[in-house]
Amino acid sequence: MNTFYFIVNPKAGNGKGRAVWKRAEQKLNTLHIPYRAFFTEYPGHAIELSRTAAGLADGEQAVVVAVGGDGTAHEVLNGLGAFATSGFGFIPAGSGNDFSRGFGIPADPMDALGLLLGIQERNPSSTDCGSLNLNGKNHLFINSAGAGFDALVSKKANESRLKGLFNRLSLGKLVYVYILLKELASYNRTPLQVTIDGNVHSFKDAWFATVSNQPYYGGGMIISPCARPDDGELDITVVHRLSKAKLLLVFMSVFWGKHTSFEEVHMFKGKEIKIQTTSPIHIHADGEYIGMANTGEIMAVPGAAKLAHGTPGKET
Ligand SMILES: Nc1ncnc2c1ncn2[C@@H]1O[C@H](COP(=O)(O)OP(=O)(O)OP(=O)(O)O)[C@@H](O)[C@H]1O
């Protein structure tokens, strides 16, 4: 039987993390399932806690479960590291929850826990991740990484006090829309070069470049409709040249994945991606702000994580 280690972000989803954990704890106790729980106390803490959990599990089949949003999943993934022996589980309790959406994990937290417990005797399935190297530091991502306007929107949304207010009104996803509209007026497009498996693509005035492992980002937008987390490749979306008014039109169409038919939207697939700009631009990984840089190097890492929910890849 697997041993479960839960890494709970009580602040995720404006307190939903704590509430979800209370229900999960009750269910685990009722079913007499052995587990240990750790609570994050600050940003980045889930990286340390998941390493601690994986260390404690030495020799046993462990499942380290992130309870929170995409940021918590991102931190646990990075704590476990590429090719970790521990399984990686997720109970959604955030505002965006693109990870559960893209990986077939139930949106209802108790259903996600039920699925995790129900398949505990099975081997976890493997899934691809991306690895972003920025200024010499590697960041694994499971959903997407991006450079430019979308990274700025992630940063501002995470910093915004309005995120809490929108969450309280169960409108958490709309914070990205609000920030996008607000930042659009002052954002300047930049020249951007993307090199994909040795092929160079230059854009004179790019809004952003996003590299996706699965279709969803920003709380349900289908940015990369053809991305598959088990195909060994990453999908690249570059949006350039659009006027601000047309960007809004394209933005609305992303919710249906229809933006790909606009000539200013370019889609590529590849394994090794280099994004270069003349002046530093904002970078995110899984919606977590990483910093500013002129160059970001990204690689597909096939089978990097072992998904304890058993979806979507091959058995390990
Ligand atoms: N105890 C804590 N206090 C404050 N921030 C925390 C704490 N623990 C973790 N964090 C930070 O909270 C941030 C948000 O977490 P997370 O992304 O999981 O939730 P969310 O933003 O509500 O969901 P989503 O990313 O799905 O929209 C992360 O950047 C994480 O580092």
Automatic annotation (TrEMBL):
Q: Which UniProt keywords apply?
A: ATP-binding, Kinase, Lipid biosynthesis, Lipid metabolism, Nucleotide-binding, Phospholipid biosynthesis, Phospholipid metabolism, Transferase
What the entry lists under InterPro entries is as follows: ATP-NAD_kinase_N (IPR017438), Diacylglycerol/lipid_kinase (IPR005218), Diacylglycerol_kinase_cat_dom (IPR001206), Lipid_Phosphate_FormReg (IPR050187), NAD/diacylglycerol_kinase_sf (IPR016064), YegS/DAGK_C (IPR045540)
What are its cofactors? Mg(2+)
Query: Does Repressor appear among the keywords?
Result: no
Q: What's a single GO BP term from this record?
A: phospholipid biosynthetic process
Segments forming domain DAGKc: 1-136
A GO molecular function annotation here is: kinase activity
Question: Secretion signal: which residues?
Answer: none
In terms of Pfam families, this protein maps to: DAGK_cat, YegS_C
Q: Which NCBIfam families has this protein been placed in?
A: YegS/Rv2252/BmrU family lipid kinase
Q: Which family would the database say this protein is a member of?
A: Belongs to the diacylglycerol/lipid kinase family.
UniProt-recorded name of the protein: Diacylglycerol kinase family lipid kinase
Q: Which organism is it from?
A: Neobacillus piezotolerans
